[in-house]
Amino acid sequence: MDINYGCRMIFKITRFSVAVTITVLISSLITGCGGGGSSLGSVSGVLTDGFGAIINHPAAVVSLDGTSELAYPASDGSFTLSAPPGTYILRGQLYDAIAGFLLDSTREVVLVEGQTLETGTFAISDNTLEVAWESYRQGQFNKAENEFKVYLNDARSAQAHVGASSALSGLGWTRGRGLDNPVLAADNFLDAIVGWDGNVDAYVGLAACELSQMKFDGGFHFNQAIQAVTTAIDLPGNYSSSPTHDQISEVDLYAYRAFVDYLNGNTVNARQEALEIQDEVATGGNSASSGMIEIVLNFLP
After folding, report:
1. Vertex 119: Cα angle to 38 and 62 (nearest 5)
2. What is the pLDDT of residues 118-160, one digit of tens each?
3. Domain range spanning residue 38?
């Protein structure tokens, strides 16, 4: 932990068999907080992963560097911290000392007396996975596949369910989109969901694979695709795959569901959903979603 901000934290975290003790050592006082009478400013937000999925794990903690303030996200991921007015580094972490796994992000915040700064979503991520995702973004899918596999083969990483789930999701996207193997990709997405049932990105990938598999087995996977994308929509948070991969947002999920409903013969539901979201798709959806909505609206009786 960075002691340059006047604070050193030692985390020893318990989840079931892992013991958690948090000791905070304050090495210096914040300038201006002496006297005990100053009013406070606050910062609030929602802790998420890089795809907007809510993080409410008991080992997650949010802090203000240089203070003793700690917050543990509620069931909806929300948190609030208060401190004397000033500029701070807001830090979010999910740390497993046994697994050697760390999600960590920081953001500079300015607290004003008597006011609450709303940060919106505060995303935390694992930098070691970013190497594999960068290969994916560069279109180096074989390299990305190997890097995700290396991550999963690391015994320490595999014990950390959020990180392993994200790596499995990465394998799914790499194999499904990049290497045109939706059958194997679907297995990766399912394993990711078993590891962490809040992995929205895995449900989105699984929904895409359900349709892609049809060209391999000739089966109709419409209901499975609708179920997967509906689960992704219903999970807490506002999904966005960007900037990690593929420019998919929450509204694109609604467009996809309407399109699959159309393919499945549920024309009334498809048209109703398409009409409800067409303006939002036009302003915030990707090009594929615009094409799907156009088909649903223009080719229905």
Report:
1. 75
2. 998 888 876 667 889 999 999 999 999 999 888 787 644 544 5
3. 3-123
